[in-house]
Structure formats: structure tokens, C-alpha cells
Write a structure and sequence with these properties.
about 10% strand, 9 helices, about 35% helix, Uracil-DNA Glycosylase, subunit E, four-stranded parallel β-sheet
Length: about 230
């Protein structure tokens, strides 16, 4: 696994040296050597590469990379250009459109969000093809919990969007009362109508950011072409 290339390297240096991470790295390497695994190995830490710790304004927590061909690109909920938007991302866009009254672009790579300080982190950073949650037992949650805890301990306020029951449990890792922590059902078709639609998270996040003197997120800017 490669060095991230920004401030996360120093922040996570102690985590990388722990026994569990050394075992995790070996297990993930073995999976890539013997199976089809997503995202491509060079994109495993892409969400962290694109959004350095100091630049994080908001954290959106996903569960698992997409496990279909050509979908996963190392950013939670995002897909590569030319790939149809998955149902969960479609529902995210619908909620944004409902909150702000504008039409979302067709792209789903979400690079524009990352460049604005949105860290879109999956709880598990890799997955075997066609086998959802297959790499959870390898130990990814220990690592990503550490990332969330580090963000939650930062004195500079940020927004956390936790969607779904498993994501909501991560709230206990966020120690600072100065952060805005938003929870809602997952945007998947199975649960979106149970409270994700109408959650108003994107507008609430922007109101919070403006209130602390930070530039709000332009949620329409989802890709390089929109930036």
C-alpha cells in the first residue's frame, strides 16, 4: 500500500505501524494477487489523498466500495465517468435537488466534492468482486474508525453525515461537541423513504459551515468539469 502523499501520512503513521494494520496490508495484498478486488489497488486511499486532514470540512461515511466492474473509484458513493449512477447516489442527488431546487449533473465521480473538502470514506476500503462486505473481516473498520476518531478529535469544527444504522454507530467515535453530527437512514432504495428523503443534511451542513466562517459546499460541483 502506497504513501498517501499529504498530511495524513504523519497523522496516521502510528496507525500504519500497528500489528493489525500490518496484518491487514498483507491480507489485502494476497486478495489482489489471487482475486478480483475493487477499487484498483492504486486507488485504495484515494479519498484521503484528495482531501488532506487540514482541508476536511465534511465527512460522508459509506459502507463498502461498489463490487461491480468499473464502478469503484476509491471515493465512497462515487462511480467512474461513463458508469450509470447507482441507486444510492441517485437518491443522494434527489435529496440535494429537493433541498436546493437545482438540477444535479449526470456525472458521479464526486471529485468536485473532494476538492471542496468533503471526505467520502468507506468503512471498508476494498471488496472482492461480487462479494459485498467480503473484506470487512480483514480489519478495515479498525483503520477507518481511527480516521473518524482523529477527525472527531480535531478542534476545528466539521460536519459528519452518518447514513444508515452501521454508520450511525460511529457517532461514539466523534468526541467533539463543536462538530455537527447528522444521522439519517441510508440512501439505498430499501431505506431512503424511511427518513433519508427530507433529512435536509446538505443544507444543514452548509448553514453550519457558513456559521463558523467557512465556505459552504457547492453540491452541484460533483466533478472536475463542474468545478
Amino acid at each position: 500500500m502506497k504513501i498517501i502523499g499529504n498530511g495524513w501520512d504523519n497523522i496516521l503513521a502510528a496507525e500504519f505501524a500497528k500489528d493489525y494494520f500490518i496484518r491487514l496490508e498483507a491480507a489485502v495484498r494476497a486478495e489482489y494477487d489471487t482475486c478480483t478486488v475493487y477499487p484498483p489497488a492504486e486507488l485504495i486511499f484515494r479519498s484521503l489523498e484528495l482531501c488532506s486532514f487540514a482541508d476536511v470540512k465534511a465527512v460522508i461515511l459509506g459502507q463498502d466500495p461498489y463490487h461491480g466492474d468499473l464502478q469503484a473509484n476509491g471515493i465512497a458513493f462515487a462511480v467512474n465517468d461513463g458508469i450509470p449512477l447507482p441507486p444510492s447516489l441517485q437518491n443522494v442527488y434527489k435529496e440535494i435537488e429537493s433541498e436546493f431546487g437545482y438540477q444535479m449533473p449526470k456525472e458521479g465521480n464526486l471529485l468536485g466534492w473532494a476538492k471542496q473538502g468533503v471526505l467520502m470514506l468507506n468503512a471498508s476500503l476494498t471488496v472482492r468482486k461480487a462479494c459485498p462486505q467480503s473484506h470487512v473481516p480483514l480489519g478495515w473498520h479498525t483503520f477507518t474508525d481511527a480516521v473518524i476518531k482523529i477527525c472527531g478529535g480535531r478542534p476545528d469544527p466539521m460536519v459528519f453525515m452518518l447514513w444508515g444504522a452501521s454508520a450511525a454507530k460511529k457517532k461514539e467515535l466523534i468526541s467533539g461537541a463543536h462538530h455537527l453530527v447528522l444521522t439519517a437512514p441510508h440512501p439505498s432504495p430499501l431505506s431512503a423513504y424511511g427518513g433519508f428523503f427530507g433529512c435536509n443534511h446538505f443544507k444543514r451542513a452548509n448553514n453550519f459551515l457558513k456559521g463558523i466562517g467557512k465556505e459552504p459546499i457547492d453540491w452541484r460541483r460533483v466533478s472536475d468539469g463542474n468545478v
